[in-house]
Specification:
Blueprint (H helix, E strand, L loop, with lengths): L1 E3 L3 E3 L24 E7 L4 H18 L17 E7 L15 H14 L4 E2 L4 E2 L8 H19 L6 H16 L5 E3 H11 L6 H13 L4 E3 L6 E3 L2 H12 L2 H6 L5 E2 L1 H7 L5 H10 L4 E5 L2 E5 L22 E8 L5 H21 L6 E6 L2 E6 L2 E8 L2 E8 L4 H22 L6 E5 L1 H5 L6 E2 L1 H11 L4 E3 L7 E3 H6 L3 H5 L1 E3 L10 H11 L9 H7 L6 H4 L8 H9 L7 H11 L2 H10 L3 E3 L2 H5 L14
Parallel strand pairs: 3-4, 4-5, 4-6
Antiparallel strand pairs: 1-2, 7-9, 8-9, 10-12, 11-12, 13-17, 13-18, 14-15, 15-16, 16-17, 18-19, 20-21, 22-23
Amino acid sequence: QTSLSGVGEVSVWEFSGSDCYYMLYDHFIGNANCIHIVLYSLADPLSVQIQQCSFWLAFLQSRIPPVEPLGDSGKSHKPAYVILVGTHVDQANIGKTGDFSSKQAEDLKQKVSEKFGHVFNLEETLVMVDCHAAGSADIKALKSVIQQRKQQLIEGLPRVTQFLERVMAVLPDWALSLHPFPVVTWTAFIEYLHLVVNPLAGDEHLKEVIQQLQLMGEVVYLKREQEDLIILHPKWLCSTVCGFLLSQEFRNNALISGTYTREEFQLAFPEYEARDILRVLSALGICIQCTEAGQTEYEFPCYNGLEQEEGVWDQDSSFGGECGGVVLKTSAAAAHHLLSVMYPRVQVQLRRSVARRFDMECELYQWGHGSKLSYGPLEAIIKHSEDQIEVIVRGPRDAKKACFFFLEEILGIIDQVLLEMSPGLPMDKYIVSSTDLKGKNQAMQWSPRDTMAALLEDGWGHVLSNTAHPGRQETLTDLLCFGSSEVQSMLVAGPDLHVSSMSTVTRQSLCQLLDAPHPMGKDWCMLAVQMGLIDKVPKLDVGAGSYSQTARLLDEWANDSISTIGKLVTALHSLGREDAADILLSGCSLYRITGPEHEMCGQEDRPDRPHNLG
């Protein structure tokens, strides 16, 4: 918390460019009611500047998914506000300091706007500063921009109530009294406010005030399975605790297994009571408590430096059981870093899933970039490498249904982590050849676009050719259902899903393509004709420029129960918009599960997911 001259009171959160801290950022980035400043160095080549800006904008995009109703070209109803700030003016060859006509800066702005202009509210003013000259015109211009945008944001927020002001007045003394551990449970927070602020404050008032305090940067609210925690001193959490425990220096000296007993962790971080700190780290998803041979331990996947042991996934070439899998990929600019920081959280969730199972024999072995999970006779290997996560499952002969739901359960765990950490990250699900997996060959993969197109063309019986191994052919039932007709009967194929099941991220991509007028008229208006909604065009065109006509058209068409994803793809093909059809084929679910087994696995329909997990 600080006060800037010309700006006023602000809460400044600085996010290090050091990737060892990225796994923490999802707890603090994700709200559109703030100003995001992306820094890049003018001393770098233009290509590096574009790369840096694209990385952080993709990072923000993954954290802040679009909100309906969508605006023109698919812009979110609540887009995040971003200022691009060029630093090191004194080292850049752009003429006089403050010369905003820099050709390089204009090129950067154009490139970034083309890619992210429909996602964010990008500041029009080109801001370039010399941080050594605190009183320069550049710094004053930056402060002026921040002040203007701050005022706009405040106007859209709830007013500060007297109750909130009184709570803010007592928090500093309370945090000081709790030194050196300024952490309380939600129950203790309620009891304290009832005691010193207002004994009649109801649940709704308390929930509202904690949301406002978090938005203002006064506290950090952490959800837990047992009881939620409230950090009354955010800087203590971010700098003193996580700044040290996630630093490269600490990681270099951490136990290579990533597993600590409470006593071992106490020795590694003696400044605080280990039990208390471990509760906080568990709430952040950094570690998880587990029991090994009757001893309580704490697993930190982010510290795990073990290599995969020999023989962990050995398989005889004559393997006759069931086998299948998928590879999750993303092409986002920040893909490598996003998946790298996400995978340790996946490992935490895998450990949690094992701890919850009491009805069958479970075993989980984890190393630096992978995990092997066994449930009775079923086995799965989950591996992360650069921009993908591979999931392969296998089981005994005739365990087709069990293997399918085992795979779905693991995908559900990964999906939950994606929802928590990167809800706006587009993720594609590539289907892996089960025949190749059984034969220990380099496995053929089919993209979601090709798989969805095949479902649309011939349904479950469509045969996909294996270009890696000509002569091998597998049907979609073989690939998606482990060859089980029983499993197939429980699924609704992607093309048959109602158009309302489309994710907001996919809708946004379609709006970006179809809202703009097409030189040959192949835009939303002609699509309305294809859909038989020509009489609705005048109504849909009202408010053009503020609302997406494509989104309105899809909403209107969704009122018909027979409006499916497959019919929309066909309409786009007829319109000659292969680009839009490919977006739809790649961005929609391949299937949806129905029936009691769906509930048994704990999977829920999540149309807001930006990728196509079943």
